[in-house]
Amino acid sequence: MELIKRIKQAEAQAQEIIEQARAQAAQQAEKGRTSRLKASEEAEQQREKTVEAAVAAAQTQGLAEVEKLKAQAEKQRQQLREKTADRMAPAAAKVTDYLRD
Predict the structure, then answer these.
(1) Which listed residue, of 11, 37, 54, 81, carries a Cα 20 to 30 Å from 29's Cα?
(2) What is the pLDDT of residues 22-72, one digit of tens each?
(3) 95 backbone dihedrals φ, ψ, rounded to 5°
(4) Residue 37's closest CA among 16, 45, 77?
(5) For the chain, which residues make up each domain, given as ranges?
(6) Helix, strand, coil: what percent of the chain each, to 5?
């Protein structure tokens, strides 16, 4: 009788240990899922920050390039005006003379 009682008690303890192990495994699995989800969210946030920084840098660079090109175009226009200024008066005089005749 005593032996049967000990066997049943051992079986009950074994069952309890199994249940505890299952609970711990489920808990560890949930922690793993939570950890992976958190890491994924952090990676997504970092990716968004990187993209925003790249867009801002590209925008700044683009605006600087636009300003540089505007200045260059204005310089070229000014050079063209200077180059043709001495030809304008005689050309205008020729046109005016032609129209009068």
Answers:
(1) 11
(2) 999 999 999 999 999 999 999 999 999 999 999 999 999 999 999 999 999
(3) -65, -45
(4) 45
(5) 1-101
(6) 100, 0, 0
CA dist., res. 18 & res. 24, Å (int) = 10
For residues 71-100, give the mean pLDDT.
89
* Eight-class DSSP state of 97: H
Q: What is the pLDDT of residue 59?
A: 97
- SS3 of 49-66: HHHHHHHHHHHHHHHHHH
